[in-house]
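Hi,

Apologies if this is the wrong queue. I'm a grad student, and the batch job for Condensation domain protein from Catenulispora acidiphila produced an output file that my downstream script rejects. I'm not sure whether the problem is my script or the file. Here is the sequence I used:
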Amino acid sequence: MPFSGDGSGESELTWGQRNIMRMMQLAGEAVMIGGTVPLEEGTTVEHIVNLLAFIVERNQSLRTRYRFREDGEPVQVLYSSGEVALDIVDIGLDEDPAEAAEAVRSGYEHGPFDVTADWPVKMAVLRRAGVPVYFAAMYPHIAIDGLGFEALVGDLRNLDRDTGAHLAPREGMQPFELARQQQGATALRQSAASVDYWEKMVRLVPGRRFDSEYEPRDPQWSDVTLDSKACHLAATSIAARTGANTGSIVLGAYAVGLAKVSGKSTSAIRTFISNRFRPGLRESVTPLLASCLCVVDVADTDFDTVAQRAWRSQLKAGKYAYFDPRDLLAMFARVAAERGEEVDLLCYFNDLRREFGAPRPGPLPTPEEIEAALPLTTLTWGPHTDVPDAQTFMELNPVPDTLNLMLRVDTEKVTPEEQEVIVREMERILVAAAFDPACPSGIAANATLSTTGS
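Support response: The file is valid. Your script probably expects a header line. Output copied below for reference.
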C-alpha cells in the first residue's frame, strides 16, 4: 500500500529512541507493542487500508527506519513516501477468529524485525468467508510507547474511514522536531541536572545489589505472578493513612522484599516515568518513557515511613527522568572508575495500572475484608525466557480490584525460591501495615555503601 507524508531526511535520535535502541541491542530483538481487536460489522478491507494510510502519513515515527554510521552511531531516516504492507489472512469457518488473530499478533511480536529495512508497523485483517472479522497490529517500541499508542488510537477520531480524509491537523511534536529540541541549550541543561541527580543517588547505594551468584536455570529468566486482592485492599488502607499513592506503597514493599533477600537495606530501583507532561509531547507518537532512580532505605523504621520515602523518591524521579542516555552512561563509567567497580542498577519497577491504581471509592476496607481476601491469593509461574533482561523486573498489571504483579528475575542472581520470598514478603508487609502505622519493616541496618576500591 503506498503512503506519503510531510518531511524526509536524516536526524539524530531522540533520547527516547536511544533508550529503546540500546534495549533492543542488549536483548537481541525488538520489543513490540500492539494487540488484536474484533472488527465491527460492516468494516471493509478498504476501511483498514484508509486507517493504515492515515496513521503512517500523520506520524513520522511510522515512516522512519534507522541507519548506522561507520562509527556505529545510529541515525533516524525519515521517508516522505513508500509502500507498507497490509496482510490479508483468510481463516476457515471452523476457526476461532480471536485465536487466529492472536497467532498473527504473536508471529509479528516474535518474528524478525530489521530497524534498517522494515517499516515500524505490522498490520493484518483477518477474513472469514471473505468478511473482515478481526484486526491485528504490532509496532516496535522504538516507534511508540504505551501512552503514544493511546495517542495514536485517540487520533483516529480525525479519520473519515469511508474516504480516508483527515478531519483535523495532527497534534503532538514529531520525532525530528523533538531530536532538534533535545540538542538545544534548555534541554541540555535539563539533561545535565538529571544526570547530576542520578550521580548523587548512585553514590548512596551498594556497588552490587546481590552478592550471590548461582548456576542459572534454563531458561535463565524466571517469571512469577502474584495476584492478591488482600494487597490491593491493604495498599488502599495505607494510602488513606499516609497520603502516599498505592504505586509508591507497592514500591516500598518491593524495596522491603529486595532487602530481605539481598541483606542490603538500601534499594536502588529504576522506575519508569513518562515525559509526556512536557510541552508539546502529550499527543506525540514516539517513545517518551524513561527510567529514573529511586533510592529507598528500609532499615530500622516503620512501613509508613518506607512508603513515604518511596513516594518522595518517585516525585524526584519524575523531575529528573529527562536526559541524554549517552551522558548517563558516561557518568556510570566515571563513577565506576572512581570506585573500582561497576554500580549494579538492574532492579526495575513499572506500574502499568493507571486508573486501576487509584484508591477504590467508598468506605475503606476493614480488617475482616483483608483477612477474608488472603486465601484468594494466587501465585503463577512462567512463562520463562532466555531473552536477556534485568536482575529483577517488577510490573504491576492493569487488573481491577486486585494487585496483580509480575516479578522477573535473573536466576544467576536470584533463585526462584528467593523470587517467591520477595513477592510473599511484599504481601506480608502490606497486610501487616494495613491497620498498624507502627508496623516495622523487619529489616535491620547494614553498610549501604560498598567500599571496594575506595
